[in-house]
Design a protein that fits this description.
Helix content: over 70%
Order of helices and strands: HHHHHHH
Largest sheet: none
Radius of gyration: 16 Å
Number of strands: 0
Strand content: under 5%
Distance between the termini: 27 Å
Amino acid sequence: MASFCFVAFGGLLAKANPSNAGWYLFLGLISGMMGDICLAVKKFLSGASAAIINVFGILSFMAGHIFYITGLCHAGNPNLLFGCILWIAIYVPVNIFLLKKSKKSPLNARIMGCVYLAAVTFMFSTAVALLSIQQNLFSGLFAAGGLLFLISDIITMYNATLSEKPRTLRAVNLAVYYAAQVLISSCIYYF
C-alpha cells in the first residue's frame, strides 16, 4: 500500500533529522495511512459497518491534518491572523459550492464534510501563513503539499456528490493525493 511507503519514508527522515515538528508530521502521515486503510476496508462492507468505518477514516484524516497544523506551529511562528483570513477566504466559497452539490447527501455526511473541510483548509492556510514569514525549503514544500491535499480532498468531496464516478477524476485525485504525500513526507527532513 502506498500509504505505508510514505509513512516508512517519513519515519526514516524523522529519525535522520529528529525534531518535534518532524515527529508531528510523521504522526500526521500515520493518521493518513489509518484513514486510507479504513477507506480500503469500507469497500468490503455495507450498511452500518461501512458507515462506521467511513467515519473512522474521516476522523483519522482529520487527526492527520491536526498533527500537521501542530507540526507547522512547532516549525515556526506562522502569522495566524493572515492564516485565519486566508482560511475564511478559501473555506466559505468552497464549502458553499460543495454544500450546494451535496443536497441529496444525508445531513450527517454534509456536517462531517464541513468539519473535515475546515480542518484541511486551516492546515493549508497555516502552511501559507508560515511560508509568508519563513521562506525556506520546508515551508515551500509543505505549502505545496498542503495545496495538493486541499485539491485532492475537494475532488474527493465533489466526487462523492456524483451519481456516476468518472474514472479519470479518481485517477487525477490519486495522483494529486500521492504528490501531496511525497511533498509532506519530504519536508520532514528540512527542519
